[in-house]
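Action item from last week, closing it out:
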Amino acid sequence: MIDLRPLASLGGANHGWLDAKHHFSFGGYHDPARTHWGNLRVWNDDTIAPKTGFPPHPHRDMEIITYVREGAITHQDNLGNTGRTEAGDVQVMSAGTGIRHAEYNMEDVTTRIFQIWIVPTRTGDQPQWGAKPFPRGERSGQFVTLASGYDGDGDALPIRTDARVVGATLRKGERADYPLGRDRKAYLVPATGAVEIDGVRVAARDGAAISEVEVLSVIALEDSELVLVDAA
């Protein structure tokens, strides 16, 4: 089953410095039909103006994954962590028992990110932060795990939940398969390009909520960059 959620149908708000599109209910946007997809709670498509950003604010009991599509994001938190994550790279913040952080676009160009929140499977752990480059070439023609709650997923950034975040870059005409499992849910968003899933066209920044699929097959209609959450 595929529920296509076109970009034009998403909620959101333009704050001037921040133009945000919400795939799920968030802030002032509430849609009772779009509150979560399994343990995936938030998928925000944020465009952040140069030299602006999110001032310090708290989180707890949430796994927050930031996928940088263009530009870069600079992280600061009350644990003393600082880091700059560039386009194509990923950062993970496990809010745990509580963390206070800020996210800024310190660049001279616009930054575009996907910010993904997944409800943790376990709580009570101390907060942590990490980031890692994932060059697009390593994802060429296949899905690669970027963040994972499973011990066997090698170099993926750790998250404290029964989920994976995976990415792929496909050339026009290429196909990539992902072994989802019928008891799992997937949410896929092309950062760029367009793909076809079981006859459904998913364009750049559209969302596709997918369930009851053993193996997810994606065919690129254009050169495409994909992000997918495999959720419980």
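Closing note: The chain is about 0% helix and 55% strand.
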